[in-house]
Design goal:
2 domains, 214 residues, Rossmann fold, alpha/beta
């Protein structure tokens, strides 16, 4: 189907829907949205949120370690050293103290997209995390870098602090800005073909490691 034919089909379908439902103003749409019943349970867990998050992250075949704030620089350096040689992509807003024990030659600040594929991995923070689903959310603000930085390299180390972990999805979404580009990370990248053969690293990093700071 040509691009123009596809566009015409789309317009026709949308036109039919509009004729049935009628065109609504932005105010009407906002009013309808406000009438949605939200009586569902917003929080399924009240205790041991960090333990639940660590458990769910591990379920996705990601490595997760609990480290104190004082141990964090050493833990970051240890994790990167275990990956062998090469430099790691680091966003400009990542706290310098997190990298205090990493040799400078192993740090590549804000590399270009062309350089990312040659690097050993990436180190970022995050915007929020969800204990119930073991999901980490990046909004690509300070300390996270552009989306390519966390998707192109084969290894991704994410630092998550206790105050960023929400018990459930509704609580986490309230902390996020929907106008920002959000990336939801639930374990390393993985997909399956029609025979259910699992392949990792196709749409993102093959290896995900999480340092959780209580």
């Amino acid at each position: 189907m040509s691009g123009r034919a596809g566009a015409n089909a789309r317009e026709e379908i949308l036109g039919r829907i509009e004729r049935v439902t009628g065109r609504r103003s932005a105010a009407d749409a906002a009013e309808s949205y406000g009438r949605i019943d939200r009586g569902y349970l917003r929080r399924h867990h009240g205790e041991k949120i960090l333990e639940l998050f660590a458990e769910r992250v591990a379920d996705y075949r990601a490595a997760v370690r609990l480290v104190s704030a004082g141990e964090l620089p050493g833990a970051v350096a240890e994790s990167l050293a275990a990956r062998g040689g090469g430099a790691f992509a680091v966003p400009s807003g990542l706290p310098d103290e997190w990298l205090a024990r990493v040799p400078p030659e192993r740090i590549s600040r804000e590399p270009s997209v062309a350089e990312l594929d040659e690097l050993a991995g990436a180190v970022t923070g995050c915007a929020a995390a969800i204990a119930e689903t073991g999901t980490i959310v990046l909004d690509h603000g300070p300390g996270q870098g552009p989306r390519a930085l966390s998707l192109v390299p084969d290894y991704h180390l994410i630092v998550v602090t206790a105050d960023q972990v929400a018990a459930d999805v509704p609580e986490a979404l309230e902390r996020l800005d929907p106008s920002r580009p959000l990336t939801f990370v639930s374990g390393p990248s993985a997909t399956s073909d029609i025979e259910l053969s699992r392949v990792e690293g196709v749409h993102g990093p093959r290896t995900l490691e999480v340092l959780l700071v209580p």
